Amino acid sequence: ARILLLHGPNLNLLGERDRATYGSTTLRDIEERTTALGAELGAEVRCAQSNSEGALIDLVHSTRTGDDGIVFNPGAYAHYSYALRDALEAVAGLGVPCVEVHISNVHARETFRHTSVTAPVCQGMVSGHGDFGYELALRSVLHRVAEWRA
Ligand code: DQA
Question: Where are the transmembrane segments (predicted)?
Fold first, then answer.
């Protein structure tokens, strides 16, 4: 299987930004660990990050040519990007499921973070588990892909 590990805005600053909320792990650490876990589980993980909505939409569309699933931390776009939601819905309809990840527990934070407009078109959402959330999400999306193939 091939999985796109995708990160949205400001997540390139992980490890520098607001460590009390997001920890000291860098984006590169997360990408390396997730890629290594993927290899253990027989999956190829390709990694991408962008701060811009349009680029993220293009990356979601790019999964149509050979990816089996997406693990996506949309950052704040999760709270209001209907365009990203539509992109995820489109590829889900083409058989590319997505698991949404938030490092922090968005429900324990400001009210505007309690809503995710992207989560309803995802297979599921993982929030508040820190870096470990990526392992949960990767295992879950691979489980779904294997079920669909069976
Ligand atoms: C985040 C939560 C979002 O609310 C926030 O805008 C982020 C990070 C998380 O991983 O906890 O940028 O997606």
Answer: none
